[in-house]
Write a structure and sequence with these properties.
83 residues, mainly alpha, 4 helices, 0% strand
Length: 83
């Protein structure tokens, strides 16, 4: 995580999450969400970390079942797009 630079790490994760979302690549989005969960854990926000892991799990479960039509129901705009 950038050697402890949490702000820089957050920027990198947001960029990766946004790129995965824009390209419609849920597996890359899952990777970015895992990194985001780790960032929240390292920041001491375990509740937010758990939320990101739950969201990651929902995307992974939907993707692994091959229910591509259901992906829009569990995906959300990346944090970089949210206020």
């Amino acid at each position: 995580m950038r050697g402890g630079d949490l702000t820089g790490a957050r920027h990198d994760i947001d960029t990766a999450e946004r790129a995965a979302w824009e390209r419609g690549q849920p597996m890359l989005e899952i990777d970015a969400l895992g990194c985001l969960a780790e960032l929240h854990r390292r920041s001491g926000d375990t509740e937010r970390s758990e939320q990101e892991l739950d969201h990651m799990e929902a995307i992974a479960a939907t993707h692994s079942r091959g229910s591509v039509r259901d992906l829009p129901k569990v995906r959300r705009k990346p944090s970089a797009f949210r206020p």
